[in-house]
Structures are given as structure tokens and as C-alpha cells.
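User: Can you predict the 3D structure for this chain?
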Amino acid sequence: MKALSVRGDYVMDMIAGKKKIEYRTWSTKYRGALLMCSTTKKVTGSAPGYATCVVNLRSIEYVDFDECYYWHIELLDVIKPIHVKGQLKLFNVADELIKPISKAEFKKEVAPLIYQPKRKFKRKRLAIDKAL
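Assistant: Here is the predicted structure, written as C-alpha cells:
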């Protein structure tokens, strides 16, 4: 299956139905199922380095105002998270790795992978204590 690396919080927005357009500076002739892979950048609320859903790439249009391409997408399935090393442009991932699951199973599977930064409260508290 064709795959695309996207920032993790954007992938989670796609799953939630909040993100229907992916913005790119380049186009492709490919249309159809597209595996969305989170980049390894640690963004709060995402699963860095994992593919978590499949979207349908319906169409692409160039928008002069933004000088970029709007990739119109819609969620097809959430999948059992698979560790994927992202790449630039479109790349291939073996179809046998992609296993659709229910939303309930998805929540259970992805919960341990979600990045939550450690609280900095203790560090600030220590800095204040040292200053006094």
C-alpha cells in the first residue's frame, strides 16, 4: 500500500474527522487508499513513528492563493498500529502488515503509544527552591 508520513497530531485529527485536507508542495497522480504514518517527532497526543489509519485520497487541487496542493482525504479505517520508518514523498508498506480494527480496539491499542510530555512542574519548583 502507498504510505505518506505526516506529523502525528495531524494523523490523529484525520482519525477524529477534523482534518479533511492535507497540504503539500507537490502533487501525485496516485488516488485511492493511503496509509498515514506519524513522523517520529514527539508531538503531544500522537503516536510517533506508527502508522495508525488508512485514508482515501479522493482528489488533489492546486490553490494559487496558498501556492500549494490540497489533498482531499477521507478516513477509511483505523488499523492496528504498526511501527513504520517514514520517508519523503509516497512510499510502499507491505499490505499484510495492515490490519483494520474497531474504534474500541484502536483506543486500547494506541493508548500506550500516545506521547505525553513529562511535567516540568518539578523542575520549576526546584529552580525556585534553589533561588530562595
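The chain has one domain: 2-131. The two ends are 59 Å apart (CA to CA).
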